[in-house]
Amino acid sequence: MNDIIHDYLLKHIPKSTPFFEELEVYAKEHEVPIMEPDSLHCLLQILDIQKPKRILELGTAIGYSALKMADKLPKTEIITVERDEERFKQAIHNIERYGASDRIKVLLTDAIEGSEEILTYGPFDAIFIDAAKAQYEKF
Ligand SMILES: C[S@@+](CC[C@H](N)C(=O)[O-])C[C@H]1O[C@@H](n2cnc3c(N)ncnc32)[C@H](O)[C@@H]1O
Questions:
Q1: Residue pLDDT, tens place only, 91-117
Q2: 3-state secondary structure of 127
Q3: What CATH architecture is 3-135?
């Protein structure tokens, strides 16, 4: 993207609250790849227009994007999938701290191997794939 446009967009993205800022700092310090502000806000904008009742996210990491979606869409339920046990536990912890456990369900499974289980939580109105890039076609 053109640098001028990128800078303009970044300037207009609202500043994160202390809770989300803490997750951003944690992700940076521990090298957890969470969404960048511009792509995240683009996604949130699209979802805000669509207003999905239920979202499936593949790739929870520490729960950052799932919580951002839950924050933007208070009536939406989110099913999010993570195969790494340590990150799964951190996501559960963060979601509990935010008080969103009733709206975000985290599944500890591989998105492909666990597809049968995942599909029992459908149907989904939106699917956000943010797991291993090389496997997107399979996802
Ligand atoms: C880019 S991070 C997700 C970031 C998160 N969506 C956010 O922005 O807060 C990708 C995550 O997907 C997980 N992952 C990769 N391949 C997966 C698979 N096949 N099934 C489930 N999780 C997977 C990784 O362990 C990693 O935590």
A1: 999 999 999 999 999 999 999 999 999
A2: strand
A3: 3-Layer(aba) Sandwich (3.40)
